[in-house]
């Protein structure tokens, strides 16, 4: 595989590269909605519309509302996650419980053990457990999620990223939140974020774009760039503001995931 080209500071090369492709903003971070990300991109000086953003929370909402077949009486989603998931489920008119509700943001009690075990604490309409990044994860949420799945609920995850880059270091990602359930259940959830091709299919279905004219831009080789390569996109571009660093781009090895090109930061593309 050829070495990726370093584009930072090469104005003509950057312009030539980005002129080849259509733009869709894709994120695995489920804590924010598409509208939140649109605001963030505009603040960074990057023109964007809500319809150009496709996040893992929205991908999960689309999957649940339009693809997953659920019994009429089991269409409620139990959420482990933040407002981004709830907003996108609302956009698809999907009923949900858990999430940011104060009733599950607390310590578990002796009474909870009894009522969960008996099923009295469980909503019988829950047919899906959806796990994303949750800054308020606790024992009660995990207990409820486990028992819903044990009673037949579909196990979904917005993504399985093990870490979350922030403040120039790493913190637990959504994959760390779902990990206890994976260990308890002995199986993985259906993941709806990068590098899952279920997400690529959903994006293609929504935007009707040509994969050859699309470029994946991201800061993580094992999710973002892998997502673009396995999805058959025309281009892949890495930015060095997340998990993957310049030495990863320049490492030798035939089985390594490599982008076509890379830049120091997303702002370098504004030429």
Polypeptide structure, described:
Helix 6 (139-150) links the parallel strand 6 and strand 7 (154-157). This protein has helices at 11-18, 34-43, 56-67, 83-91, 110-118, 139-150, 174-185, 197-207, 221-230, 246-250, and strands at 5-6, 25-27, 53-55, 76-80, 96-98, 126-131, 154-157, 163-166, 169-172, 190-191, 215-218, 235-239, 261-263. Helix content is 36%, strand content 18%. It is of the alpha/beta class and 271 residues long. The chain is elongated, with a radius of gyration of 20 Å. Helix 3 (56-67) packs parallel to helix 4 and helix 6 packs across helix 7.
Structure summarized in a few sentences:
The protein is an alpha/beta fold. The chain has 10 helices and 13 strands.
Compile the SSE list and pairings.
Blueprint: E1 5-6, H1 11-18, E2 25-27, H2 34-43, E3 53-55, H3 56-67, E4 76-80, H4 83-91, E5 96-98, H5 110-118, E6 126-131, H6 139-150, E7 154-157, E8 163-166, E9 169-172, H7 174-185, E10 190-191, H8 197-207, E11 215-218, H9 221-230, E12 235-239, H10 246-250, E13 261-263
Parallel strand pairs: 1-13, 2-3, 4-5, 4-6, 6-7, 7-10, 11-12, 12-13
Antiparallel strand pairs: 8-9
